[in-house]
Write a structure and sequence with these properties.
It is built from seven helices and ten strands. By secondary structure, the chain is α/β, with parallel strands linked by helices. Bound molecules: S-adenosylmethionine (SAM).
Length: about 270
Amino acid sequence: MENHPPVRVERRAVSEEESRRANGPDWDRYADEYQATHGEFLGDAGFVWGPEGLTEAEARVLGDVADRDVLEVGSGAGQCSRWVRAQGGRSYGLDLSMRQLQHSRRIDLETGAPVPSVLGTATALPFADDSFDVVFSSFGALQFISDIETAVAETARVLRRGGRYAFSITHPTRWMFPDDPGEEGLTASQSYWDRTPYVEVDDETGRVSYVEHHRTLGDWVALLAGQGFVITDLREPEWPDNHERVWGGWSGVRGQFTPGTAIFGATYSPTTTP
Ligand SMILES: C[S@@+](CC[C@H](N)C(=O)[O-])C[C@H]1O[C@@H](n2cnc3c(N)ncnc32)[C@H](O)[C@@H]1O
């Protein structure tokens, strides 16, 4: 929930098409600032799961990626996929924002470690069935999607049986609190069970310019189990001591009390052939 004034904030239902039409251009507008602000922390070939700084090298949620076909959904500038390549995996990026992918290409050229990437959306993956051993998202795509059932079904479709699915999202309990890194952000002000999306509307045009969707922990369990996934991990990284970073609503002030990031790990084990 970054601010892009002049906008007014609403809570209301939005379709998948409306979410995509808002978030693609929003990420195009925001990409330069995002990479300038967070690029160093992310590392050109680094894999962090969230603002707490937990790395995949520490977490090992994906399992062994060497010699595996790997898809990153919501890949941004491809930092995580570049790390996967450095471990011997064949990773590919997919993102809704052309400007994010241009940053990915810039880092490809600067590092000489390219990540083949494609413009697209998580709800219509441009890949054949059974193409990948691992699909992952580090804060990519999932909370920007209305039609999350289709996104998870698409992941299941492109994964091989026994493949891994892992993703990080804003911890669902954060939905209860204002998006404020200070003390004010510690007082619950809305219902955990209210799934009504967070919507920013451009004051001048009246168009929806940014959307975030919320699901509870139980929603995620039902979504994954319903598509043939067996959940193996739910990580809730603690805020490290002496970690000074403030990232949107994430900070040491809040991190002492409440989790900011949830990382799910699951294995694709359908009981019937799709
Ligand atoms: C918070 S960034 C995370 C990017 C990268 N994983 C990182 O850690 O920097 C979220 C990314 O999701 C992408 N995104 C948003 N909606 C998407 C969708 N429907 N399909 C694919 N990517 C999407 C955005 O363009 C953006 O690059």
